[in-house]
Design a protein that fits this description.
The structure is a homodimer. Helices cover about 45% and strands about 15% of the residues of chain A. In chain A, the strands form two sheets. In chain A, strands 2-1-3-4-5-11 form a six-stranded parallel beta sheet, with helices on both faces. In chain A, α1 packs across α2, α9 packs parallel to α10 and α11 packs across α12. The interface between A and B is large, with 70 and 71 residues. β2 of chain A pairs antiparallel with β2 of chain B. Chain A binds a DNA duplex (30 and 30 nucleotides) through α2 and α4.
DNA sequence: GCACATTTGGAGAGCGCTCTCCGATCGATC
DNA sequence: GATCGATCGGAGAGCGCTCTCCAAATGTGC
């Protein structure tokens, strides 16, 4: 094997070149090099060149840590996954990461952060002690701001963050009103769209597979569905709760079927559960959409690959995450910015299942 | 709304308490507080208590930045996604993040890092300039080490990292031999298992949908498949390449079908493409597995929810990522550690598609 | 009681950077 | 040519922490 020395540095022992070294090579002071590198004030163009040349020759790279220490800026944003009780090897967390939800959020976030030259640091907090430590670190400038994915129904983190003065944006509204920035989807509207589509195509006996009733998004989808079915004269509709996993959707579909065998339409609160429901329906010998129509929620990749492909409520998660990142960046830039929220409108994506 | 002051600090203006402040409150020197907090040397138990008390009263949280500056340790590991030519709003990246692959890796990584109190920072590099900057930052102690997900077939990053002396572990072997730690799957074996299963269940005309031939994992799966079919007397087998997305799998299946209409078994190099293949097969009126048997690769969530559920080669990605994290942590602890690699053996998961 | 080894706490020098002064330099103006 | 204002570069003080000295305090053996 052949190793060509691709990096021809001017190594000073194991020490990396510092501003001081560059200054010496360029024959100027540390301050001048700093000014050139940060593009501050007009430095004599000639010196400017000399300095950059010295930077190139020494292979200098600014030390972020040292810089952050004085500027109080890290160029890092934390993505916090706040969970109520997740312990070290909790399988829940790994399930969460494998869920397309997480990846879509990261993708949306990165599309904006990358351009801004900001890096994303992943943090999980599972206990109140962890939350406290996190807020402490954050106030200390561990990151310039945070994007919060709050899983528990009621979570002290959003409040702790605002009280600590940490720039933060939530994806999904907080369960209790807290003056915090957030980006959310009009979940009620989404559920309404789904219900009306089901009713519109002639379903007479409809039900719903919901998520856990205490998380805000889930709650809103339930109430939106209830309200709109009631409006159309369906006094009572069967609702069974799952926990957003495929297996739970399958189980929920079974109990729904047992409860109301004459079911002809189901709104499922996310695509993953809808895929599970499809499986249960096939087992029960019902055709989709002929016997039972299914409307999912999210428009995740699972919706396209399902058999039949799912008609679903589109949740523009990437766009929302990108907006959250923009909001956070703006807030970091302007500490006076007032808490604001952006609500996205869902749309129905028609495929085969309803 | 009611805001109860949940954090009763002793605020010194906007300044957060520093070691100095704690020292003053405790009536000792800065050094002593530092020693107590870091548990170094035996400090008089009585002072010990006084110091912790002062820490509590002031609400002191150590400033990581300042600490890192002197210790050269950050408590951060970077997850680098090295891409050849990804630009700012490249849709490819968002597709990559939404792929279960990414989430599984993150989940596996976090399961180990979390316990170690290490945070994960996400980095994307798309250009050689970006790579250079990254290595520079890394050498400067921006992170203690890196986990590399190298997408391009031939990538200078692994070598740059080893030459720069940055602790690094790759997930998936490097395309060219570089003395770097890595964790990989025995891809050839996986392909062999798939081929033999197909042959074993009586398939006579088998083909393959592969990934891009220049990425190592993909290459190995192709050669494993070729070798084992040849061994069983199939001199030539049709292989069409996709790019690991569902759509590409669908397209590949169509051309495979056009090329060899009498096909009765296909090995698909990942589950996502296999789901696409299933769609194409259904369109073509072929039953799976009766007319055409399908074996996927990965055992991702897509395999379970596919119709029919995929028989697939299990890729224990979470375990591999966790192992990579452990390896990295060990390497960070012991800089003398020699580059080593861990190869996982794939297994076949039997479901309905073959 | 004294010489000695052994703890234990404090002073202070940095880690690598930014940024505020301030003095030096320069060109323009009368 | 002297004076003023503007501009530009350097010195040096920190940012908050760790860690190496050292001095003081304590304990040990004869």
């Amino acid at each position: 094997m052949c190793y060509n020395v691709s990096m021809q540095r001017v190594p000073v022992g194991e020490r990396l070149p510092t501003l001081e070294d560059v200054a010496r090579v360029a024959g100027v002071s540390r301050a001048t090099v700093s000014r050139v590198i940060n593009g501050i004030r007009n430095v004599d163009p000639q010196l400017h060149e000399v300095v950059w040349d010295a930077v190139g020759r020494t292979g200098y790279v600014p030390n972020r840590m040292a810089r952050s220490l004085v500027t109080r800026r890290t160029g890092t944003v934390a993505l916090v996954v706040s969970d109520s009780e997740s312990h070290d090897d909790d399988p829940f967390m790994s399930r969460f990461f494998a869920d397309p939800y997480f990846g879509r959020v990261v993708g949306g976030l990165m599309s904006v952060l990358r351009q801004a030259g900001v890096q994303l640091a992943l943090q999980i907090v599972g206990s109140d002690d962890g939350r406290r430590r996190l807020v402490g670190d954050l106030r200390n400038g561990q990151a310039d701001g945070v994007i919060v994915l709050s899983l528990p129904a009621v979570d002290a983190l959003p409040r702790m963050l605002t009280e600590g003065g940490v720039p933060a944006v939530m994806i999904g509204r907080p369960a209790e009103p807290v003056p915090i920035n957030y980006v959310d989807l009009a979940n009620e509207t989404g559920a309404t769209i789904a219900a009306e589509h089901l009713l519109g195509r002639g379903c007479r006996r409809i039900g719903m597979i919901s998520g856990p009733a205490d998380v805000p998004a889930s709650h809103d989808r339930i109430s939106g569905f209830r309200r709109s079915t009631a409006k159309h004269g369906h006094g009572w509709v069967p609702i069974v709760a799952g926990n957003f996993t495929q297996e739970s959707g399958e189980a929920a579909m079974r109990s729904l079927l047992a409860e109301s065998p004459d079911l002809d339409g189901v709104f499922v609160a996310n695509d993953l559960m809808a895929v599970g429901a499809l499986l249960a329906l096939r087992d029960a010998g019902r055709r989709v959409p002929e016997d039972v129509a299914i409307v999912g929620f999210d428009d995740s990749s699972a919706a396209v690959s399902a058999a039949p492909p799912l008609t679903t409520v589109r949740h523009p998660l990437e766009d929302m995450a990108a907006e959250a990142a923009r909001l956070l960046l703006a807030r970091i830039e302007d500490p006076e910015m007032r808490a604001s929220s952006v609500i996205y409108e869902p749309t129905l994506v028609l495929r085969k299942s309803a």
